[in-house]
Amino acid sequence: MNNKFSGVDTIGNIVVNFPKAIETFKEYNIDFCCGGHRPIAEALKEQNLNESTVLDRLNQEYESFKDSYTSDIDWRTASYSQLIDYVVQKHHTYLQNELPVLGQLVSKILRVHGEHHVELAKVHKLFNSLRTELEAHLIKEEEVLFPKIKQYEKDPSPELLDKVLRTITELEEEHTGAGDVLKELRRITEQYQTPADGCTTYGLTYQKLYELESDLFHHIHMENNILFPRLQALKGAHTH
Fold first, then answer.
1. Which residues lie below 8 Å from residue 84, measured CB to CB, with a gap of 6+?
2. What is the pLDDT of residues 163-210, one digit of tens each?
3. Residue 38, domain extent
């Protein structure tokens, strides 16, 4: 078997070539969205994981995936508009629906269980700071960045690309901030484990926070590892 991936491959590049690797990375707690630019070997070393074990598994899974690969869209070559519409319809819609629901649930479990579970005050604070940041972030993408990219696709110019790239830099920093909050939420909830005395609502809240993490990781991956690098690669493409 010719191995597809090696230790020098970046985490983001592995996921771009093989989206199913996300599940494996999540299992090993490897950050594939904000940490996507790092070589896989570096992340494995940091986590004290055996490089050959993880790479063998990824390569075997890729072989099976390749054989059953069907008509999934290759986002590396899809139009910018198609990629943007997918991110908005799938990920932005999810957040717009789920953030208000989660806001109510997080407040409810703090009210009912906060006295005996001091970490819930921190969960409440972290979630609400994340929610505020994300709401502003989605507006910036939908009202500023995405229309500029669609405009650039129709009528490319170095000035417009420059504006797009500046906004991308700001959004990447915001992604890192969101990723940090998610890591902290996972840590203080002990990987979203509902305590023994937790009620059904407690369990539902943690399940929904876990789903939020999962969806955000996919969302950030689509932008940080696919959409943004494709545009950044065009820097200098306009020669006078």
1. 146, 149, 150, 227
2. 999 999 999 999 989 989 998 999 999 999 999 998 899 999 999 999
3. 11-68
3-state secondary structure at position 177: helix
Q: Is residue 240 part of a domain?
A: no
Using CA atoms, how far residue 238 sits from 41, 153, 172, in Å, is 36, 14, 24
Q: Are 143 and 195 within 8 A, CB to CB?
A: no
Number of C-beta neighbours around residue 189 at 10 A:
21
Same-domain status, 126 and 213: yes
- Count of domains observed in the chain: 2
Does a structural domain hold residue 74?
no
Q: How far apart are CA 80 and CA 102, in angstroms?
A: 31
- Taking a C-beta distance cutoff of 8 angstroms, is the pair 113, 206 a contact? no
Q: What are phi and psi of 10, to 5 degrees?
A: -80, 155
153 and 39 fall within a common domain: no
Residues 166 and 215 in one domain: yes
pLDDT tens track for 118-139: 999 999 999 999 999 999 999 9
The per-residue DSSP string of 219-235 comes to HHHIIIIIIHHHHHTTT
119 with 57, same domain: the answer is no
Those residues with Cβ within 8 angstroms of residue 36's Cβ, 6 or more apart along the chain or in another chain: 10, 11, 12, 13, 15, 221, 224, 225
Residues paired with 104 in a beta bridge: none
In this structure, which amino acid lies at residue 100? P
Q: Across the chain, which distance is largest between two alpha carbons, in Å?
A: 68
**pLDDT tens figures, 138-148:** 999 999 999 99
Do 91 and 43 sit in the same domain of this protein? no
